[in-house]
Amino acid sequence: TTTMGGKSYVISLFDTAGQEEYIHLRALSYVNSDVFLLCFSVAMPESLRDAQDKWIAEIRHYSPNTPIILVGTQIDLRDEPPPPPPPQKPRSGSRRESYKTTKAPVFISTKEGAYVATKLNLDSYVECSSVTEAGITRLREAAIESGLRKVDPDDNGCHCACSVV
């Protein structure tokens, strides 16, 4: 239960399986959702590409009028120092040591996440961390605000679900 503006709201989250063989099960959860939280890790740029290339189209296919919030997760990882490079052994037959360069982690910035949300005409962009709980309250509030704005002529006033993709 989350309180906002003096009112209490119950938020039910449904995490759906991403594998292709579960498309029919996911589609069932899409129908009654009031808001979609489309999550990706800011520490894994490929997860944002998946959100753009796969998940947006699928959600809009099954639930075209439902708000989508793009959620950047694992923001706590931005503050961690990069791991040290592994120790290198000298090359065989060479006096010089071989030094491999370790790539620094690439993170999706807040600005990049917001840009993608705007470009794809999503409801909003929110970042959070389950480790530090940073942004969790804002995410709950954004989900409630988006769910309350959803207008469905067949809606009986019951706002039932928030799907996490």
Attribute tags:
two-stranded antiparallel sheet; five-stranded parallel sheet; Rossmann fold; alpha/beta; about 160 residues; about 30% helix
At a glance:
With 165 residues, the chain is of the alpha/beta class. It has one domain (2-78, 104-164): 3-Layer(aba) Sandwich (Rossmann fold), CATH 3.40.50.300.
Q: Would you write up a description of this structure?
A:
- With 165 residues, this protein is of the alpha/beta class.
- The chain has 4 helices and 7 strands, in the order βββαβαβαβαβ.
- 27% of the residues are buried.
- A 5-stranded parallel sheet has the order 3-7-4-5-6, sandwiched between helices. A two-stranded antiparallel sheet has the order 1-2.
- Helix 3 (110-119) links the parallel strand 5 (68-73) and strand 6 (124-127).
- It has a single domain, classed as 3-Layer(aba) Sandwich (Rossmann fold).
Rounded Rg: 20 Å
Report the top-level CATH class.
Alpha Beta
Q: Which fold name corresponds to the CATH topology?
A: Rossmann fold
Sheet bearing the most strands, described? 5 strands, parallel
**Which ranges are low-confidence, i.e. pLDDT below 50, for 5 or more consecutive residues?**
95-99
Strand/helix succession: EEEHEHEHEHE
Sum up the overall morphology in one term: globular
Strand content: 15-25%
Could you tell me how far the N terminus lies from the C terminus, measured between alpha carbons in angstroms?
21 Å
- The CATH level-2 architecture is identified as 3-Layer(aba) Sandwich
Q: How do the strands line up in the largest sheet?
A: 3-7-4-5-6
Helix content: 25-40%
